[in-house]
Design a protein that fits this description.
- By secondary structure, the protein is α+β, with helices and mostly antiparallel strands.
- The chain has one domain: Arc Repressor Mutant, subunit A, CATH 1.10.10.10.
- The chain is built from 5 helices and 3 strands; from the N terminus they run ααβααββα.
- Strands 1-3-2 form a 3-stranded antiparallel sheet.
- Helix 3 packs across helix 4.
- The longest helix is centred in the last third of the chain and has 16 residues.
- It is elongated, with a radius of gyration of 14 Å.
């Protein structure tokens, strides 16, 4: 396993090791795509905290962002997550 792969797995599991981020994932799954401020309002989080969580999930390959003017919309990045998860599973279970 390369250092790059190890870093990606560590980033993935660190992102998943937070209850609020797990809830954000559930919310995005339910709603398909959400405006960042709507995520913030749903959890009564500060803007900076919401931004941190959303960016952590994005860097881990769990979510993706789409800009529309000044608004940023987030959704699950199923392809990226699936590829990373399958890669990790193959490494562990093979």
């Amino acid at each position: 396993m390369s250092n790059k792969d190890a870093d990606r797995y560590i980033q993935l599991f660190k992102a998943l090791a937070n209850e609020e981020r797990i809830e954000i994932i559930r919310l995005l799954k339910k709603n398909k795509e959400m405006f960042a401020q709507d995520v913030e309002r749903h959890f009564y989080l500060e803007q900076s905290t919401t931004s941190h969580h959303l960016n952590t999930l994005k860097r881990a390959g769990i979510t993706k962002a789409r800009k529309e003017g000044r608004k940023v919309f987030y959704s699950l990045d199923k392809e990226s997550f699936e590829e990373l998860w399958n890669s990790f599973s193959t490494m562990v279970l093979s």
